[in-house]
Write a structure and sequence with these properties.
Length: about 375
């Protein structure tokens, strides 16, 4: 009876899946069962017959299990694809974040550079305006100084002139100094040297040149007459041992040639300085016209003074001591000056020269001046 049921189950499976070709071919390969099977004869065994190996291989696999395996494989493949996609997204996200950080860093650096450039621009613009303002002030001061010099030069021919004579005792005799108050030119003399005084006055009174020459002739004649032993009468204020004008250096014996303002430590000459610049004054003492007897080593003291053109006290800005050789040539002198406030100044140099081997002999002075502008 069991043998009779198995073929019936096989027939039902063929009817249930008629659309699957392999199942149909497998069903067709199974031999058709007898529609009227013969019952076993009595005495025969009722154990159902076992199918052969070929028949077992031809039994179809359940379609549900195949589909499950297929879907499982597809699901695993989709999981792997999604995992790869996620990894790619993470890698792209990481690169994007790194690019954003780099861009942010570059943006900040650009902003810093922009702020620094703007700060430097404002600084240089302010400095440029300050320099322009100083230049305007310097030009105005230069015009004022130029007009002042022109006025002084124009006043040389004035009919009025003022001189100042200073006398002071020195080692038993008098030394003197005469100064033209308009030009501040000075000349030193020993004793009551009328010839030196008249020469100085005549040099600064060109409109009275004729009278000055006549006066000079009279004084020269008087000096020659007074040089005779019987006619010489010493002045009460001047001892007999005091040197006369014949032993004094003449007007052209020793002189200052040039007065230059130079930047400290350089050879750059200028008339205009900033208020924070150090400067030096360079003088040239010319001894080429001195007599041979006067070419001896000398000590030299130089003093610098400055006074505002607008008015104010005269202030000391430097001094220096030098030793002059006995050589007959021009010898340079350099004196360092102190810082000055802004303004226009008259810079004056006073040079006192003393014979180093004969300190008892009188010293004589030379002077030079120059207009400078501090801005």
């Amino acid at each position: 009876m069991n043998a009779h049921r198995k073929p019936e189950r096989a027939q039902r499976m063929q009817i249930a899946k008629p659309t699957i070709p392999e199942k149909e071919s497998a069903a067709q390969s199974v031999p058709a069962l007898d529609e009227n099977p013969t019952l076993p004869v009595s005495g025969e065994s009722m154990v159902p017959a076992q199918p052969s190996a070929e028949a077992r291989d031809e039994i179809p696999v359940e379609p549900t299990q195949t589909r499950v395996l297929q879907l499982t494989a597809e699901l695993e493949e989709e999981k792997r694809a999604r995992e790869n996609e996620r990894k790619e997204k993470d890698a792209l996200k990481k690169k994007l974040q790194e690019a954003e950080r780099e861009m942010d860093k570059q943006t900040k650096a650009f902003e810093r550079e922009k702020r620094e450039t703007e700060r430097q621009r404002l600084h240089y613009e302010g400095r440029l305006k300050e320099l322009e303002q100083r230049m305007v002030e310097a030009q105005a001061a230069h015009r004022t100084a130029a007009s002042s010099e022109a006025s002084e030069e124009g006043n040389f021919s004035s009919t009025k002139a003022t001189f100042r004579i200073d006398l002071y005792p020195h080692q038993g005799h008098f030394q003197g100094k005469i100064e033209h108050m308009l030009t501040h030119d000075k000349r030193a003399f020993s004793g009551l040297d009328q010839a030196a005084i008249s020469e100085f006055i005549a040099a600064h009174l060109p409109q009275l040149e004729t009278k000055a020459e006549e006066l000079q002739k009279i004084l020269t004649l008087h000096a020659h007459e007074g040089s005779k032993p019987e006619a010489q009468a010493p002045t009460p204020s001047v001892p007999a041992s005091a040197p006369t004008s014949a032993t004094e250096p003449t007007q052209h014996a020793l002189r200052l040639r040039g007065m230059d303002l130079v930047l400290a430590g350089t050879r750059v000459r200028t008339n205009m300085l900033r208020d924070d610049q150090a400067f030096e004054v360079e003088l040239e003492l010319d001894r080429t016209e001195q007599p041979e007897a006067e070419h001896v080593p000398c000590s030299c003291h130089v003093a610098l003074f400055a006074k505002r053109i607008e008015g104010g006290p005269r202030q000391s800005v430097g001094e220096a001591a030098h030793q002059l050789t006995a050589k007959k040539h021009a010898q340079p002198l350099r004196i360092a000056g102190v810082h000055l406030a802004r303004g226009t100044y008259r810079l004056e140099a006073l040079v006192n020269v003393q014979n180093a081997a004969a300190e008892h002999e009188p010293a004589y002075s030379l002077a030079a001046h120059k207009l400078i502008q501090i801005y």
